[in-house]
Amino acid sequence: MWHHGIKGMKWGVRRYQNSDGSLTAAGQKRYDRDKRENAAKKKDNRVDVSAPDPKRWVKEDLERSKAVVESSANVVKQLKTIEETSAPRRDLSHMSDKELRDQINRELLEQQYSKLFPSSSDAAVSKGRAYLTSTLDMTGKVLAMTGSALSIALAIKNLKG
User: Fold this and answer.
1) What global pTM score does this model have?
2) Could you please report the per-residue DSSP string of 20-58?
3) Whole-number Å distance between alpha carbons of 114 and 22
4) Tens of pLDDT, residues 58-108
5) DSSP conformational letter for 8
6) Distances from the Cα of 105 to the Cαs of 22, 50, 117, 118, in angstroms?
7) Is 143 exposed, middle or buried (0-12, 13-18, 19+ CB in 10 A)?
8) Nearest 5°: CA angle at 120, between 115 and 125?
């Protein structure tokens, strides 16, 4: 047996209309959506791409690029501050002999524990950290130069225009 249509619907009863012909809330929502979609398809509402304003596109591209560079530079700065603050070291001259012995014993115990129960290879971690640090340094330098070049280009463009 074949069934065409919506289960439970009756013949002649519209899905999005009340019996008096007014639209239900779902019908109003659907027809509003259809109006928006059809309006976007009409030729009069399309964006004219035959003669685009080149200054507008360049300015938008430069602004977008500048925003990307600034956000990337902020990420690099945040990562550097995290790296710098991750392992604060205490000044040895201000530590007493007992504090120093306790610190050394603690470090030795941690080393023994890591040898007995290795979680990951320390060589791989240190290589990864060195690679990430060098990459972040290089990225920061490149982003700083790119940001300077973009700001100079925007300044020249604004002075000309």
Assistant:
1) 0.29
2) TS-B-HHHHHHHHHHHHHHHHHSGGGS---SS--HHHHH
3) 74
4) 677 778 888 888 888 888 888 888 877 766 666 777 788 898 899 899 999
5) T
6) 83, 76, 18, 19
7) buried
8) 110
